[in-house]
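Q: C-alpha coordinates for this one, please.
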Amino acid sequence: MAPNFFGAQELFALVAVALALVICLNALWVGRRLSVMDVPDADRKRHAQPTPLVGGLAILLALMMWQFGELYLFPPGDGAIQQVLLLCGAGAAAMGFIDDQTPTYPLVRLLSLLIFVAIAFTIDPSLIVGQLTWTDGFVTALPAWGYLLLMSVSVVGLVNAANMADGQNGLLTGLFLIWALGLSLVSNGASYCPLILLSAAAIVFLFNLPGRLFLGDCGSYGVSFVIAVLTIRAHAAGAVTVATVIVWFFIPVADCLRLMITRRLSGRSPLSADRDHLHHRLETRFGTTPALAVYLGVVAVTSIIAAALPDLATACIAAVALFYGWAIWLTTQRRPQPQIVIRFDRAAGTPASPSGSVVSTGSVVMLSKASSEADEVSAHDAGPLPYAERKTARHAG
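A: Here is the predicted structure, written as C-alpha coordinates:
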Protein backbone atom coordinates (compact mmCIF):
# COMPACT_ATOMS: atom_id res chain seq x y z
CA MET A 1 0.00 0.00 0.00
CA ALA A 2 1.41 3.38 -1.01
CA PRO A 3 2.04 5.89 1.82
CA ASN A 4 -0.30 8.87 1.48
CA PHE A 5 1.01 11.27 4.10
CA PHE A 6 2.42 14.65 3.14
CA GLY A 7 6.05 14.51 2.05
CA ALA A 8 6.10 10.73 1.59
CA GLN A 9 7.92 10.94 -1.76
CA GLU A 10 10.48 13.39 -0.43
CA LEU A 11 11.14 11.17 2.59
CA PHE A 12 11.59 8.12 0.38
CA ALA A 13 13.99 10.09 -1.84
CA LEU A 14 16.06 11.06 1.21
CA VAL A 15 16.23 7.43 2.31
CA ALA A 16 17.44 6.43 -1.16
CA VAL A 17 20.18 9.06 -1.09
CA ALA A 18 21.10 8.07 2.48
CA LEU A 19 21.67 4.54 1.21
CA ALA A 20 24.41 5.86 -1.09
CA LEU A 21 26.03 7.63 1.86
CA VAL A 22 25.95 4.48 4.00
CA ILE A 23 27.66 2.46 1.26
CA CYS A 24 30.36 5.13 0.84
CA LEU A 25 31.01 5.29 4.60
CA ASN A 26 31.46 1.51 4.65
CA ALA A 27 33.12 1.23 1.24
CA LEU A 28 36.09 -0.85 2.38
CA TRP A 29 33.90 -3.43 4.14
CA VAL A 30 31.49 -3.62 1.20
CA GLY A 31 34.31 -3.94 -1.32
CA ARG A 32 35.94 -6.79 0.58
CA ARG A 33 32.67 -8.63 1.09
CA LEU A 34 31.81 -8.39 -2.62
CA SER A 35 35.40 -9.08 -3.79
CA VAL A 36 35.61 -5.85 -5.78
CA MET A 37 38.91 -4.41 -4.59
CA ASP A 38 41.24 -2.67 -7.05
CA VAL A 39 44.78 -3.73 -6.15
CA PRO A 40 47.70 -1.48 -7.25
CA ASP A 41 50.29 -2.99 -9.56
CA ALA A 42 52.89 -0.18 -9.85
CA ASP A 43 52.13 0.04 -13.59
CA ARG A 44 48.78 1.58 -14.51
CA LYS A 45 47.21 1.11 -11.07
CA ARG A 46 49.30 3.58 -9.12
CA HIS A 47 47.13 4.18 -6.06
CA ALA A 48 48.78 3.47 -2.72
CA GLN A 49 46.57 0.66 -1.39
CA PRO A 50 43.71 -1.67 -2.42
CA THR A 51 40.65 0.47 -3.06
CA PRO A 52 36.98 -0.62 -3.15
CA LEU A 53 35.14 -0.40 -6.49
CA VAL A 54 31.78 0.46 -4.92
CA GLY A 55 31.11 4.07 -6.02
CA GLY A 56 28.92 2.98 -8.91
CA LEU A 57 27.12 0.53 -6.65
CA ALA A 58 26.27 3.38 -4.24
CA ILE A 59 24.81 5.57 -7.00
CA LEU A 60 22.88 2.77 -8.69
CA LEU A 61 21.38 1.23 -5.55
CA ALA A 62 20.06 4.64 -4.55
CA LEU A 63 18.66 5.15 -8.03
CA MET A 64 17.18 1.64 -8.27
CA MET A 65 15.58 2.03 -4.84
CA TRP A 66 13.92 5.24 -6.01
CA GLN A 67 12.77 3.67 -9.27
CA PHE A 68 11.26 0.75 -7.37
CA GLY A 69 9.45 3.15 -5.05
CA GLU A 70 8.24 5.31 -7.91
CA LEU A 71 6.98 2.25 -9.76
CA TYR A 72 5.19 0.49 -6.90
CA LEU A 73 4.63 3.09 -4.16
CA PHE A 74 4.10 6.33 -6.08
CA PRO A 75 2.98 5.17 -9.54
CA PRO A 76 3.24 8.03 -12.07
CA GLY A 77 0.66 6.54 -14.45
CA ASP A 78 2.98 5.49 -17.28
CA GLY A 79 5.65 3.41 -15.59
CA ALA A 80 7.45 2.27 -18.75
CA ILE A 81 10.50 4.45 -18.25
CA GLN A 82 10.76 3.34 -14.62
CA GLN A 83 10.73 -0.28 -15.79
CA VAL A 84 13.44 0.50 -18.34
CA LEU A 85 15.70 2.14 -15.77
CA LEU A 86 15.05 -0.53 -13.17
CA LEU A 87 15.57 -3.53 -15.45
CA CYS A 88 18.06 -2.35 -18.09
CA GLY A 89 20.00 -0.03 -15.78
CA ALA A 90 20.43 -2.86 -13.28
CA GLY A 91 21.43 -5.19 -16.13
CA ALA A 92 24.16 -2.84 -17.38
CA ALA A 93 25.38 -2.38 -13.82
CA ALA A 94 25.45 -6.15 -13.24
CA MET A 95 27.51 -6.59 -16.41
CA GLY A 96 30.03 -4.04 -15.12
CA PHE A 97 30.02 -5.62 -11.66
CA ILE A 98 30.93 -9.00 -13.16
CA ASP A 99 33.76 -7.29 -15.06
CA ASP A 100 35.00 -5.78 -11.79
CA GLN A 101 35.31 -9.27 -10.33
CA THR A 102 36.55 -11.15 -13.41
CA PRO A 103 37.64 -9.47 -16.67
CA THR A 104 35.24 -10.12 -19.53
CA TYR A 105 35.86 -9.72 -23.24
CA PRO A 106 34.95 -6.40 -24.91
CA LEU A 107 32.74 -8.14 -27.48
CA VAL A 108 30.66 -9.68 -24.69
CA ARG A 109 30.15 -6.28 -23.08
CA LEU A 110 29.26 -4.71 -26.43
CA LEU A 111 26.65 -7.34 -27.25
CA SER A 112 25.22 -7.11 -23.74
CA LEU A 113 24.78 -3.35 -24.07
CA LEU A 114 23.01 -3.76 -27.41
CA ILE A 115 20.66 -6.32 -25.86
CA PHE A 116 19.78 -3.95 -23.01
CA VAL A 117 19.18 -1.13 -25.49
CA ALA A 118 16.83 -3.35 -27.49
CA ILE A 119 14.96 -4.33 -24.32
CA ALA A 120 14.65 -0.66 -23.34
CA PHE A 121 13.07 0.34 -26.65
CA THR A 122 10.78 -2.69 -26.51
CA ILE A 123 9.51 -1.85 -23.03
CA ASP A 124 9.05 1.86 -23.80
CA PRO A 125 8.33 2.48 -27.50
CA SER A 126 7.79 6.18 -26.73
CA LEU A 127 11.60 6.50 -26.65
CA ILE A 128 11.53 6.17 -30.44
CA VAL A 129 10.50 9.32 -32.30
CA GLY A 130 10.71 10.09 -35.99
CA GLN A 131 12.94 13.15 -35.83
CA LEU A 132 15.98 14.84 -34.34
CA THR A 133 15.24 18.27 -32.89
CA TRP A 134 18.18 20.63 -33.16
CA THR A 135 18.41 24.25 -32.05
CA ASP A 136 16.34 27.13 -33.47
CA GLY A 137 13.52 24.76 -34.38
CA PHE A 138 15.53 22.89 -37.00
CA VAL A 139 14.31 19.29 -37.33
CA THR A 140 15.78 16.26 -39.12
CA ALA A 141 13.23 13.58 -40.03
CA LEU A 142 14.28 9.95 -39.58
CA PRO A 143 12.50 6.64 -40.11
CA ALA A 144 11.87 4.64 -36.93
CA TRP A 145 14.55 2.08 -37.79
CA GLY A 146 17.07 4.85 -38.49
CA TYR A 147 16.32 6.56 -35.18
CA LEU A 148 16.58 3.25 -33.33
CA LEU A 149 19.92 2.49 -34.97
CA LEU A 150 21.30 5.95 -34.19
CA MET A 151 20.20 5.81 -30.55
CA SER A 152 21.65 2.31 -30.11
CA VAL A 153 25.03 3.44 -31.43
CA SER A 154 24.83 6.58 -29.27
CA VAL A 155 24.12 4.66 -26.06
CA VAL A 156 26.92 2.15 -26.64
CA GLY A 157 29.28 4.97 -27.66
CA LEU A 158 28.54 7.06 -24.58
CA VAL A 159 28.94 4.11 -22.21
CA ASN A 160 32.33 3.23 -23.67
CA ALA A 161 33.44 6.88 -23.75
CA ALA A 162 32.52 7.24 -20.08
CA ASN A 163 34.41 4.06 -19.24
CA MET A 164 37.50 5.40 -21.03
CA ALA A 165 37.21 8.73 -19.20
CA ASP A 166 37.29 7.03 -15.81
CA GLY A 167 41.02 7.37 -15.30
CA GLN A 168 41.40 10.13 -12.72
CA ASN A 169 39.89 10.54 -9.29
CA GLY A 170 36.80 12.73 -9.44
CA LEU A 171 36.66 12.96 -13.24
CA LEU A 172 33.82 10.63 -14.20
CA THR A 173 31.90 11.25 -10.97
CA GLY A 174 32.24 14.97 -11.75
CA LEU A 175 30.88 14.38 -15.25
CA PHE A 176 27.97 12.44 -13.74
CA LEU A 177 27.27 15.46 -11.53
CA ILE A 178 27.25 17.82 -14.50
CA TRP A 179 25.07 15.59 -16.67
CA ALA A 180 22.60 14.97 -13.83
CA LEU A 181 22.41 18.72 -13.24
CA GLY A 182 21.73 19.27 -16.93
CA LEU A 183 18.94 16.67 -16.88
CA SER A 184 17.48 18.31 -13.77
CA LEU A 185 17.45 21.69 -15.51
CA VAL A 186 15.69 20.47 -18.65
CA SER A 187 13.15 18.40 -16.67
CA ASN A 188 12.12 21.48 -14.64
CA GLY A 189 11.56 19.33 -11.56
CA ALA A 190 9.00 17.11 -13.31
CA SER A 191 10.93 13.99 -12.25
CA TYR A 192 12.85 13.15 -9.10
CA CYS A 193 15.12 10.71 -10.94
CA PRO A 194 17.73 13.27 -12.12
CA LEU A 195 17.75 14.81 -8.64
CA ILE A 196 18.36 11.42 -7.00
CA LEU A 197 21.15 10.81 -9.51
CA LEU A 198 22.59 14.26 -8.81
CA SER A 199 22.53 13.81 -5.03
CA ALA A 200 24.00 10.30 -5.06
CA ALA A 201 26.71 11.31 -7.54
CA ALA A 202 27.63 14.29 -5.34
CA ILE A 203 28.13 12.00 -2.35
CA VAL A 204 30.26 9.54 -4.31
CA PHE A 205 32.26 12.42 -5.81
CA LEU A 206 33.29 13.55 -2.31
CA PHE A 207 34.63 10.06 -1.54
CA ASN A 208 36.10 9.41 -4.98
CA LEU A 209 38.02 12.68 -5.21
CA PRO A 210 40.48 11.78 -2.39
CA GLY A 211 40.67 8.19 -3.66
CA ARG A 212 38.71 6.49 -0.86
CA LEU A 213 36.71 4.54 -3.43
CA PHE A 214 36.45 4.10 -7.20
CA LEU A 215 33.40 3.81 -9.44
CA GLY A 216 34.37 0.51 -11.00
CA ASP A 217 32.92 -0.78 -14.26
CA CYS A 218 29.64 -1.23 -12.40
CA GLY A 219 29.45 2.55 -12.13
CA SER A 220 30.94 3.55 -15.45
CA TYR A 221 28.64 1.18 -17.35
CA GLY A 222 25.50 1.30 -15.23
CA VAL A 223 25.30 5.01 -14.45
CA SER A 224 26.26 6.14 -17.95
CA PHE A 225 23.62 3.77 -19.40
CA VAL A 226 20.97 5.33 -17.15
CA ILE A 227 22.09 8.84 -18.14
CA ALA A 228 21.92 7.89 -21.83
CA VAL A 229 18.36 6.56 -21.46
CA LEU A 230 17.24 9.63 -19.49
CA THR A 231 18.71 11.85 -22.20
CA ILE A 232 16.90 9.95 -24.95
CA ARG A 233 13.70 10.22 -22.92
CA ALA A 234 14.17 13.99 -22.49
CA HIS A 235 14.75 14.45 -26.22
CA ALA A 236 11.72 12.32 -27.12
CA ALA A 237 9.62 14.51 -24.78
CA GLY A 238 10.94 17.69 -26.40
CA ALA A 239 12.76 18.81 -23.25
CA VAL A 240 16.26 18.90 -24.74
CA THR A 241 17.71 19.49 -28.20
CA VAL A 242 20.34 17.43 -29.97
CA ALA A 243 22.69 20.43 -29.95
CA THR A 244 22.53 20.59 -26.15
CA VAL A 245 23.18 16.85 -25.88
CA ILE A 246 26.25 17.19 -28.11
CA VAL A 247 27.62 19.87 -25.77
CA TRP A 248 27.17 17.62 -22.73
CA PHE A 249 29.00 14.61 -24.15
CA PHE A 250 31.34 16.19 -26.69
CA ILE A 251 34.70 15.98 -24.89
CA PRO A 252 34.61 12.37 -23.59
CA VAL A 253 33.11 11.07 -26.86
CA ALA A 254 35.58 13.01 -29.04
CA ASP A 255 38.47 11.75 -26.91
CA CYS A 256 37.20 8.17 -27.21
CA LEU A 257 37.03 8.45 -31.02
CA ARG A 258 40.52 10.01 -31.20
CA LEU A 259 42.04 7.24 -29.10
CA MET A 260 40.40 4.46 -31.08
CA ILE A 261 41.65 5.96 -34.35
CA THR A 262 45.22 6.62 -33.16
CA ARG A 263 45.50 3.18 -31.59
CA ARG A 264 44.38 1.51 -34.79
CA LEU A 265 46.79 3.61 -36.85
CA SER A 266 49.63 2.53 -34.57
CA GLY A 267 48.74 -1.11 -35.07
CA ARG A 268 47.10 -1.70 -31.69
CA SER A 269 43.60 -2.68 -30.65
CA PRO A 270 41.23 0.32 -30.37
CA LEU A 271 40.28 -0.99 -26.92
CA SER A 272 43.84 -1.34 -25.61
CA ALA A 273 44.92 0.75 -22.64
CA ASP A 274 47.39 3.64 -22.59
CA ARG A 275 47.95 7.00 -20.95
CA ASP A 276 47.15 9.21 -23.93
CA HIS A 277 43.68 10.26 -22.77
CA LEU A 278 42.94 13.96 -22.56
CA HIS A 279 42.93 13.88 -18.75
CA HIS A 280 46.36 12.19 -18.76
CA ARG A 281 47.72 14.85 -21.12
CA LEU A 282 46.30 17.70 -19.03
CA GLU A 283 47.59 16.09 -15.84
CA THR A 284 51.10 15.85 -17.26
CA ARG A 285 50.99 19.46 -18.45
CA PHE A 286 49.30 21.21 -15.53
CA GLY A 287 49.24 18.80 -12.59
CA THR A 288 46.44 16.65 -11.20
CA THR A 289 44.18 19.20 -9.50
CA PRO A 290 44.42 21.99 -12.13
CA ALA A 291 43.85 19.43 -14.90
CA LEU A 292 40.69 18.16 -13.22
CA ALA A 293 39.45 21.71 -12.64
CA VAL A 294 40.05 22.70 -16.28
CA TYR A 295 38.39 19.57 -17.71
CA LEU A 296 35.30 19.68 -15.49
CA GLY A 297 35.10 23.47 -15.59
CA VAL A 298 34.84 23.61 -19.38
CA VAL A 299 32.26 20.82 -19.48
CA ALA A 300 30.23 22.34 -16.63
CA VAL A 301 30.08 25.90 -17.96
CA THR A 302 29.17 24.95 -21.52
CA SER A 303 26.71 22.23 -20.43
CA ILE A 304 24.80 24.47 -18.04
CA ILE A 305 24.60 27.28 -20.59
CA ALA A 306 23.38 24.89 -23.30
CA ALA A 307 20.77 23.39 -20.94
CA ALA A 308 19.48 26.73 -19.64
CA LEU A 309 19.76 28.64 -22.95
CA PRO A 310 19.30 26.15 -25.83
CA ASP A 311 19.69 28.90 -28.44
CA LEU A 312 23.35 29.18 -27.40
CA ALA A 313 24.01 25.46 -27.78
CA THR A 314 25.65 25.87 -31.20
CA ALA A 315 28.08 28.42 -29.80
CA CYS A 316 28.82 26.06 -26.91
CA ILE A 317 29.60 23.25 -29.37
CA ALA A 318 32.10 25.52 -31.09
CA ALA A 319 33.60 26.46 -27.71
CA VAL A 320 34.14 22.87 -26.51
CA ALA A 321 35.48 21.83 -29.93
CA LEU A 322 38.00 24.68 -29.87
CA PHE A 323 39.01 23.82 -26.32
CA TYR A 324 39.49 20.15 -27.15
CA GLY A 325 41.56 20.90 -30.23
CA TRP A 326 43.66 23.44 -28.33
CA ALA A 327 44.21 21.05 -25.42
CA ILE A 328 45.34 18.21 -27.69
CA TRP A 329 47.67 20.54 -29.60
CA LEU A 330 49.09 22.03 -26.40
CA THR A 331 49.76 18.66 -24.78
CA THR A 332 51.20 16.90 -27.84
CA GLN A 333 54.70 15.76 -26.98
CA ARG A 334 57.33 15.43 -29.69
CA ARG A 335 59.03 12.08 -29.46
CA PRO A 336 62.85 12.21 -29.36
CA GLN A 337 64.50 11.65 -32.74
CA PRO A 338 67.06 8.83 -32.90
CA GLN A 339 70.64 10.06 -32.92
CA ILE A 340 73.56 8.53 -34.78
CA VAL A 341 76.66 8.20 -32.62
CA ILE A 342 79.90 7.74 -34.58
CA ARG A 343 82.86 6.20 -32.79
CA PHE A 344 86.40 6.92 -33.88
CA ASP A 345 88.29 5.09 -31.16
CA ARG A 346 86.59 1.65 -31.20
CA ALA A 347 89.08 -1.10 -31.75
CA ALA A 348 88.40 -3.81 -34.30
CA GLY A 349 86.17 -6.56 -32.92
CA THR A 350 84.85 -4.40 -30.07
CA PRO A 351 81.01 -4.47 -29.94
CA ALA A 352 79.21 -1.22 -30.67
CA SER A 353 77.64 0.66 -27.80
CA PRO A 354 73.87 0.07 -27.49
CA SER A 355 71.38 2.88 -28.08
CA GLY A 356 70.97 5.11 -25.08
CA SER A 357 74.39 4.42 -23.56
CA VAL A 358 77.22 6.82 -22.96
CA VAL A 359 79.88 6.70 -25.68
CA SER A 360 83.36 7.96 -24.94
CA THR A 361 85.45 9.29 -27.83
CA GLY A 362 88.63 10.44 -26.21
CA SER A 363 87.65 13.65 -24.46
CA VAL A 364 84.13 13.74 -26.01
CA VAL A 365 81.09 12.16 -24.31
CA MET A 366 77.77 11.80 -26.14
CA LEU A 367 74.42 10.71 -24.63
CA SER A 368 71.38 9.66 -26.66
CA LYS A 369 68.16 11.53 -25.91
CA ALA A 370 66.35 8.23 -25.56
CA SER A 371 68.09 7.39 -22.28
CA SER A 372 67.25 10.73 -20.65
CA GLU A 373 63.55 10.21 -21.28
CA ALA A 374 63.31 6.51 -20.50
CA ASP A 375 61.08 7.17 -17.50
CA GLU A 376 58.48 8.86 -19.69
CA VAL A 377 57.70 5.82 -21.84
CA SER A 378 53.97 5.17 -21.78
CA ALA A 379 52.34 1.81 -21.14
CA HIS A 380 51.71 1.02 -24.79
CA ASP A 381 55.38 1.57 -25.75
CA ALA A 382 56.34 -1.47 -23.70
CA GLY A 383 54.32 -3.79 -25.91
CA PRO A 384 50.89 -5.41 -25.55
CA LEU A 385 49.77 -6.44 -22.07
CA PRO A 386 47.91 -9.63 -21.13
CA TYR A 387 44.15 -9.26 -21.45
CA ALA A 388 43.51 -9.10 -17.72
CA GLU A 389 45.79 -6.05 -17.54
CA ARG A 390 44.31 -4.29 -20.56
CA LYS A 391 41.10 -3.20 -18.87
CA THR A 392 40.40 0.51 -18.95
CA ALA A 393 41.91 2.31 -15.96
CA ARG A 394 39.46 3.15 -13.22
CA HIS A 395 41.66 5.16 -10.93
CA ALA A 396 44.12 8.00 -10.70
CA GLY A 397 47.83 7.71 -10.12
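A few notes: The two ends are 49 Å apart (CA to CA). Strands lie at 37-38, 51-52, 131-133, 139-141, 359-361, 364-366.
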